[in-house]
Amino acid sequence: MELFDDQEPDQGGNRPEFTVSELSGAVKRVIEGEFGMVRVRGEIGRVSRPASGHLYYDLKDDRSVIAAITWKGQAGRLTVRPEEGMEVIATGRMTTFPGQSKYQLIIDDLAPAGAGALMAMLEKRRAMLQAEGLFDPARKQPIPWLPQVIGVVTSPSGAVIRDILHRLRDRFPRPVLIWPVAVQGERCAPEVAAAIRGFNALPAGGSIPRPDLIIVARGGGSLEDLWGFNEEIVVRAAAESRIPLISAVGHETDTTLIDFAADLRAPTPTAAAELAVPVRLELLATLDALSSRLLRSVSQGTERRRQRLTDLARALPRPEALTGAAAQRLDHASGRLGGALGLMVARRRGDFARVAGRVQPGLLLGYVRERRGHVANRADALEARFMRRFERAQVQLAQWASRLEPAMLRLVTDAARRVFDQRQRLEGLSLRLDAVPGQRITRAREALERLDRTRQSLGYNETLKRGFAVVWGDGHVVSTAQAARAAAHLEIEFVTGRVALTNPVPVTVPLTEAEAVEGGGAAARPARPAKPRKDEPGGGQGSLF
Predict the structure, then answer these.
(1) DSSP per-residue letters across 499-521
(2) Which of 60, 269, 396, 487 could lock 248 by a disulfide, CB 3.0 to 4.6 Å apart?
(3) 226 with 240, same domain?
(4) Given phi > 0 = left and psi -120 to 50 = alpha, else beta, which region is 540?
(5) Do 89 and 201 belong to one domain?
(6) Alpha-carbon distance 413 to 419, whole Å?
(7) Contact criterion met (CB below 8 Å) for 29 and 6
(8) Residues 91 and 180 grouped into a single domain
(9) CA 269 to CA 264: how far, in whole Å?
(10) Could you tell me if residue 321 is inside a domain?
(11) Are 544 and 527 in contact (CB under 8 A)?
């Protein structure tokens, strides 16, 4: 559509007329057709985040400004969140907004304009958080010497968790709770922050044990790969953690903002596991060494005191020297004691004689009344004291009585429960005892039946059933032809009975070696009828004997 003409406008004008909407739509088509998908480098100006979730901001350089929009659905997938002053490379498409007659850039992706921009933004964020006191060393908590449970925030499928578990297993095995998170990309920062806060929210003594130490770990990578651990939400979660936290993100040369907020930074995830627990074998060796030193110290101290006691004993005098003088003084005093006692008695008798003359009955009565009053006062005090002690004894006895009744009740209850348990056990044993004779009889009957079947299968009656016979001579088994000729009375035993032979004429039929072995020498193969001779009467009928 041609909108402009270089010729002078004529007064009669046959040019087409456009409505405002038509003209705006034509401009929109021209701009979108000419600038489809573009990449623009610039600095982010003001950023607006309304409740709708869309992002409105400006891209500018030293001379121009372009309005930019990122819709709500695409804003959640941005790898870099737009911040004022950040230099970025924006990828998007140009369009217009007819409502305000302006053009704008719909941005689908943002990327920092080189590592310098990222480092500048990182330094700016670090300075802001440090000004708030989040990196203050006074906020850091001491790492427990031997944590009971360790929480690990990392990817469950990477090599980092295997290195940590392997190192913990080698040094000092501890229970480990793994909170799986994404360690790269747009989901990294919110998931890591939620994991740290989730570990802190676990109640002490709950079904899931609350860890005593948290390790946030990730392997090495570029600055962009580790950017999730530089996000403000992760740093604040690490600083607010009431559980001591070790940061182990990247390699030794990598530094992220979570390292400044953590209570301790480890150069690698493996080093974090080494910082978390001591070496169990070294502790055992140290304990053995300290035990040996303690034993040697005690032995040496005892020996030194024994030697000191021996040295001091040599300086002491003999017991006889200590007690000899005192014994001598005692003997001397004992010799003077008899005369001294007589002299003292005479002196006391003289004193009593002088005083006895002045003693009157009234003086004695007054003295007696005084002593009687004193005795009465002592009796009253004694009675009051006795009553107080009696009342205290009653109170104490009542207390013991109140405690005795529940104790007796518990004893009776426990005794009844034990009696009930023993009765139940006795009943179970009685039932088992009642069942034992029947079971043993059944097993004995089954064993007897098995032996009987074995006896029947091994007996010669089974051989008779297969068509064999047993030859008896004079009550004994005949196994040879000579024994049959020598026997006066022969019997042949079949499976159905015996047949007696009177004056037999023995006819022997040689057995083959296999038949002799199969018959066991006790059974003979039935004799075959002999072929009749031509010259014998009877039409060629043979005889068994």
Answers:
(1) EEESS------PPPHHHHHHHTT
(2) 269
(3) yes
(4) left
(5) no
(6) 10
(7) no
(8) no
(9) 12
(10) no
(11) yes
The answer as to whether 74 is a domain residue is yes
CATH code assigned at 252 = 3.40.50.261
Q: Who's near 28: CB < 8 A, 6+ residues apart? A: 95, 96, 98
Note down the domain range covering 513. Answer: 465-524
Structure tokens at 35: 């600038």
**Do 188 and 292 share a domain, yes or no?**
no
Supply 349's token pair.
């008798």
Domain boundary among 278, 300, 324: 278
Tokens found for residue 467:
């068509």
- How far lies 176's CA from each of 157, 247, 320, 458, 502, in Å? 15, 16, 76, 70, 102
What is the three-class DSSP state of 168? helix
What single-letter DSSP state applies at residue 96?
A: E
288 and 301 both lie in a single domain? yes
The answer to whether the predicted template modeling score (pTM) of the entire model surpasses 0.85 is: no
Let me know if residue 190 belongs to a domain: yes
H-helix or E-strand spanning residue 423: helix 361-458
- Answer whether residue 389 is part of any domain: no
Q: Where residue 66 sits, what CATH number does that domain have?
A: 2.40.50.140
The per-residue DSSP string of 378-419 comes to: HHHHHHHHHHHHHHHHHHHHHHHHHHHHHHHHHHHHHHHHHH
Same domain, 146 and 266: yes
pLDDT in tens, the chain (545 residues): 444 444 554 554 677 888 888 888 888 888 877 787 888 888 888 888 888 888 888 888 877 888 899 988 888 777 777 877 778 888 888 888 877 778 888 888 887 776 566 677 788 888 888 899 889 999 999 999 999 999 999 998 888 999 999 999 999 999 999 999 998 887 899 999 999 999 999 998 888 999 999 999 998 887 778 888 988 999 999 999 999 999 999 887 788 899 999 999 999 999 999 999 998 888 889 999 999 999 999 999 999 999 998 888 887 777 777 787 788 888 788 878 878 888 888 888 888 877 776 666 777 777 788 888 888 888 889 988 889 999 999 998 888 888 888 888 888 899 999 999 999 999 988 888 888 888 889 999 999 999 988 888 777 787 888 888 888 888 888 889 888 888 888 888 888 888 888 644 444 445 444 444 444 444 444 444 444 444 444 444 444 43
Give DSSP secondary structure letters for 236-268: HHHHH-SS-EEEEES-TT---HHHHHSSEE-SS
Rg (CA), the chain: 60
